[in-house]
Amino acid sequence: MSSKVLTLRQLVRNATGQDLNHCQACMDCEFPYPEEIDIPISSMVQMVLFDDDEILTSRLLWSDMILKSAKGVCKRGLDLQAVMLALREEAKQRGLNSEIQ
After folding, report:
1. 10 Å Cβ neighbour count for 18?
2. Rounded CA separation 27/95 (Å)
3. What separation in angstroms does the CA of 63 have from each of 6, 17, 39, 67?
4. 77: phi > 0 → left, psi -120 to 50 → alpha, else beta; which?
5. For the chain, what are the domain ranges?
6. What is the pLDDT of residue 31?
7. Cβ(20)–Cβ(31) below 8 Å
């Protein structure tokens, strides 16, 4: 018996109710990042939409400063903080969080 593997977009939607297909790539979620951050939040959204597992090991995803800054940043109403938390949880489930930092 095989279990169906969900895409990252499906995992985020199931965990948060957020449908990242509503992202309009407007870049309103962008703000100045510390040098150690490897990708911007808008790229995180696109990586989830393209089911790019690399997001699960990005420094952006594990930055508590970015996590706090992500609250309310999307003018279209996507809860990017919830998305980050859901992705962190998926990374932990896959045993990836120990590889960060």
Report:
1. 22
2. 31
3. 25, 22, 11, 6
4. left
5. 1-15+41-96
6. 76
7. no
Residue-level pLDDT at 3: 56
Alpha-carbon distance values, 32 to 35, 57, 91, 93 (Å)? 9, 21, 25, 30
Amino acid at 6: L
Series of mean pLDDT values for 10-residue runs along the chain (101 residues):
78 95 87 81 94 94 90 90 96 77 47
Contact 76, 24 (CB under 8 A): yes
Q: What is the pLDDT of residue 101?
A: 47
What's the start-to-end Cα distance of the chain, in Å? 37
Q: Give me the pLDDT at residue 26, please.
A: 87
Token digits of residue 26: 């407007």
Q: Are 38 and 25 contacting, i.e. CB atoms less than 8 angstroms apart?
A: no
> Which DSSP state fits 54?
G
